[in-house]
Amino acid sequence: MKKIYYILSALFLCVVATSAQEAGKTVVIKTNVGTMKAILYDDVPNHTRTFIERAKRGDFNGTLFTRVLPEFMIQGGAPDSKNAPAGAKCGFGDPSAEIPPEINEKYFHKKGALAAPRQPDDVNPQKKSDMSQFFIVQGKVYRETELDTLERTANYPARQKALKEFYAPVRAELNMIKMSNKREYQKRLRMINAQIDSVIQATPGHLLFTDEQRKAYTTVGGCHHLDGTYTIFGELTEGFDVLDQIATQPKDQNDRPKKDIRIQSITIE
Question: Where's the PPIase cyclophilin-type domain (predicted)?
Fold first, then answer.
């Protein structure tokens, strides 16, 4: 029995060690218009491991960036793009390359986020990732007021519901307190606001940007509407100019660049 336990423990340690070795790796994406570098995250281990395996096999080498959308993202690596004729529609998904999602709330779609594409929710409600390809976010820079408006719009129904429950019944009383005891009024108001915030945060689909998100989206930019729906497994560290160059290429009606942007190699350092 002890022997079996030791064997299982050894196997577990091997798996942990392998994951640790894969985490924090640098990815070098060499294209015919320049090179980008990215790091891989250690807390999305299945995506990191799968991406590394495919890169080491050379699966991405010779493929194209098949979708380029300025102020959004660039997508490439699809197997069917390797020998695609000029102008042909390509970049279709590969169901055999799908893996379960590892969506981590601390990662968001700032510029340079490296993520896995997937089929839409109506055919893929589990949000499984298609690891046969990848996308890199370019996005846009938002103003603080834009983020405020996005929050208000998304949270409006929940806020109205909370106001009706917590504020409307005591509104007349609060107005009287405001005239006679401003300190008590402020205290009561803080309590009501906390109750309203708790309702909003408990409502599915609510939107509250963190300080980190606000800083990123108002400086480098990104695509906030993708947050929580795709698995991000890394981020660019170099080559943002190459990202911009690819994202702004002239493209056809299928968003494929008119001039092929080819992935010459993806290597792991």
Answer: 31-268
> At 187, which amino acid appears?
K
Predicted confidence (pLDDT) at residue 19 exceeds the cutoff of 80: no
Q: Say whether pLDDT at 84 is over 60.
A: yes
Alpha-carbon span 41 to 121, nearest angstrom: 25
* Pairwise CA distance, residues 43 & 59, whole Å: 23
Which CATH architecture fits 25-141+220-268? Beta Barrel (2.40)
Q: Using DSSP, state whether 60 is helix, strand or coil.
A: coil
Give the per-residue pLDDT at 8: 37
User: What per-residue confidence (pLDDT) applies to 14?
Assistant: 39
The 10 Å CB-count burial string (b at 16+, else e) for 188-220 is: beeebeeebbebbeebeebbebeeebeebbbee
How far apart, in whole angstroms, are the C-alpha atoms of residue 113 and residue 10?
35
pLDDT tens per residue, range 117-158: 999 999 999 999 999 999 999 999 999 999 999 999 999 999
Counting residues of the chain whose pLDDT is more than 70, the rounded percentage is 91
Question: Using CA atoms, how far apart are residues 47 and 232, in angstroms rounded to an integer?
Answer: 9
Tell me how far apart the 2 most distant CA atoms of the chain are, in Å: 78
The three state secondary structure string of 193-257 is HHHHHHHHHCCCCCCCCCHHHHHHHCCCCECHHHCCCCCEEEEEEECHHHHHHHHCCCECCCCCE
At position 132, the amino acid (one-letter code) is: S
